[in-house]
Amino acid sequence: MELEKGVQRWAVDISEWNPSPHHFSFAMSFLPQHEHPSITRFFKMEDRKRALVSRLLQYALVHQVLGIPYNEIVIRRTAEGKPYLECDKPNLELPNFNFNASHHGDFVAIASEPICLVGLDVVAQTIPEKESVEDFIESFSSYFSGLEWFNIINAGSSHQILSEFYRYWSVKEAFVKAIGVGVGYKLDTVEFLHKNWANIVVKVDGKELKDWRFWLLELGKGHMASIARGHPMFATTSYRGTLKRTQFNDEEYNMGLNLPNGSFILRKVEDLLHSNEAGRVSP
């Protein structure tokens, strides 16, 4: 099924990639010049690696799924920072192809969809060093509904409380990233209901949104990823303007909404470099 080709889930464990300065520059050379400052602005090498791999994933995914040559791929960002593909030739088989990348800890990941909006959030379940779990999560309490907060603080042990906190936080982030909202969105107005983190439902201002699906997936090494899939009509004005189609009849939309989600495919950085480009030889 051609639509399923548009559902991609890739992840890279950057802890396994320790490039020399020369190899790092070589990998960055596959990106357009205007992308370089968004990588070199970081002082720490780990942050530079995350930024570089995030962008390489975007270009490699577009190249593999749509067949666009690397040097013809144009990726822009909305005013809120949401990446999108600028393309004059609509793909009729993947009418609304869009993607979202995320990174935290050791993992950088990307997800794409052919019809629905997609939001992705990766989170490393880091344990607070200088304060208790309860004190750490308390500062975030205003971002959750009363029911969500009750479920978090009554999850069990400190470790279970922290895991539940990260699950709720991650699905909220995936949702707001899907619709293209920037920092500052009122997360407390977004409430999630679930049964052991299956059949996840979202309510915004108390109203259930029926045209959405959510998944929580384990990436390993204490990392998890949340994926949101939803209707283009919920996109912000700036992001909606970048989409090829925002109107679908029920049959078309349900076809996209009910596509299999799939597991993450682990990639290496070398997989993201276009090896067939003339004159490009890896150090």
From TrEMBL:
Its EC number is 2.7.8.7. It comes from Nicotiana tabacum. InterPro entries: 4-PPantetheinyl_Trfase_dom, 4-PPantetheinyl_Trfase_dom_sf, AASDHPPT_N, P-Pant_transferase_sf. Pfam families: AASDHPPT_N, ACPS. One of its GO terms (molecular function) is magnesium ion binding. One of its GO terms (biological process) is lysine biosynthetic process via aminoadipic acid. Signal peptide: none annotated. GO terms for cellular component: cytosol. It is an enzyme of class 2 (transferase). Keywords: Transferase. Coiled coil: none annotated. This is holo-[acyl-carrier-protein] synthase. The keyword Transferase applies.
